[in-house]
Each structure stands twice: as structure tokens, then as C-alpha cells.
Amino acid sequence: MQRYFVDQTARAGNTFTLSKDDAHHMKNVMRMDVGDEILVLDGTGLFRCRLEQLDKQTAVAEMLEELPIETELPIHVTIAYALPKGDKVELVAQKATELGISRLLVFESARSVSKWDAKKIPKKLERLQKISKEAAEQSYRAHLPTIEYVTYDEVLQRAADYTACLIAYEESAKEGEAAAFASTLSRLQSGDSLLVVIGPEGGLTETEVSRLTAGGFVPASLGRRILRTETAPLYVLSAVSYHFELKG
Fold first, then answer.
1. Helix segments in 10-167, DSSP class H
2. Are the CB atoms for 78 and 94 separated by under 8 Å?
3. Secondary structure percentages of the chain, helix, strand, coil, to 5
4. Nearest CA to 141 among 71, 218, 42, 221?
5. C-beta separation of 97 from 145 below 8 A
6. Are 167 and 219 in contact (CB under 8 A)?
7. pLDDT confidence of 8, banded at 50, 70, 90?
8. Contact call for residues 202 and 43 (beta carbons, < 8 A)
9. DSSP result, 157-221
């Protein structure tokens, strides 16, 4: 069954009203009709529903039952991602969603080549959220990740909200450090939260790393190789998935 995310405001009792884009997808792409069943997620649960109304503009579905959620990571992972070049952030938003990210914080670091015009930030976030929504539906996510644009200082301030905070730091890899990431994961339990900061192509500056470390972040290598900025978030999420979902 196809999955569709809706806002909690779309629910009225046991009925969900889906967006115009979703109605178009059901009618013209999936060739659905009234009586067909879909899965609806509103951030509070996963529901099997039956279409009661469907045309090119409107889709209304009635809830039949609530289903168990089994596709989310046991811990909540946030990636604070320094603006990279080009459209790499779109790739990260898509693939990180598939891998289970809870929140993506995009920020501008000292060595970020790309800069976002303040007037264009809402549109850029809207596009990233759309990419994430499509990836979440495709990968059977039960919750839609949150994507925000924040400042470097706001990343620092949010450290207190997390069980553990790490910096993906290439100098740690060069120095042979191999324990911080693994030991952090071993201490985390289901329901805990992890915040990982990842720098741009040129890496974080020593000043940025020092301030993060003073704020409670632990520098950690992501293996023995130096990863591209768009690879590092996917490595983190894959390692978390292996540790909590596949490791014996």
C-alpha cells in the first residue's frame, strides 16, 4: 500500500483530508479509485485507511485501523550539516531520510562556500522538506524528519537537548582515533538522542571545533578514510542502524 504523510490538522475524527499533490498522485500516477486502501501517517501514528473521495483536487480517507510502527531508528539522530557546494544538501536530505534521520539542521560554517540568501531560505527549506517527504514515503518511514536552517551558535545551544553530541572531525581520523564514535553508540539506549556536527568541504575551523568541544561535543573519526561531506552523514546513520538494528 502507498504511504502518505499529512499534517495533524488534516485529521478530523477518523477521517483524513490529503493534499492536492497527493490526490493527483493517487488519481493520475497510481490510478487509484474510491474504495482503495492507503497508509496515512500524521506524526502520531500509522493508519490503514480506505479512500472515500478521490478526484484530481481532493482525497479523503477513512481510518480502518492503527498499525504498529516498526521502521524508525531506536534513537533520535540529528545531523547538523554545514552548507556544502551545489545541491549536495538535497542528496543528504533524501538519503538521510531513507536511513532514519530525525532532524536535519543546515547551518553556515566559516568555510562554507555556498551562502543562502535570507529571502530564499523558506523556499529552499520547502524544497528539502518535499524531497524528504518523498523519500520517507518510499522508504516506509513512520515519521517525517524535521529540516531547519540554523546558525552555528544555535547548534552549540542545542547541545543540552541531546543525550550525546559528536563532531565528525577528520583530524581525529588522521591521528588514528577510533573509539569515540563506537563508545558513544555503546552508551546510548533506546529513546536517547544523538547530535552529530559535520563540516563543509574544507572542514570545520580549529576555532569552531574548540567552541564545540567546550560546549560538550566530542570529536570523533568516522573510520580511517577521509569522507566527503555528503558521505559523512550517511556513514553516521548507517553505523547507527547497524549498531541498534542489525548487530547481534
1. 20-24, 88-99, 121-138, 152-157
2. no
3. 40, 25, 35
4. 71
5. yes
6. yes
7. confident
8. no
9. HGGGGSSEEEEE-HHHHHTT--SHHHHHHHH--TT-EEEEEE--TT---HHHHHHHHHTT-EEE-
Residue position matching grid coordinates 497510481 = 30
Cα angle 128, 131, 136 (rounded to 5 degrees) comes to 120
Mean pLDDT score, 64-92: 94
What whole-number distance in Å separates Cα of residue 154 and Cα of residue 158? Answer: 6
Q: Structure pTM?
A: 0.85
Residue 176, pLDDT > 60, answer no
Q: Is the pLDDT of residue 174 over 60?
A: no
Which amino acid belongs to residue 81?
Answer: Y
Whether the Cβ atoms of residue 96 and residue 129 lie closer than 8 Å to each other = no
Torsion of CA 198, 195, 158, 122, to 10 degrees: 60
Helix (H, G, I), strand (E, B) or coil at 127: helix
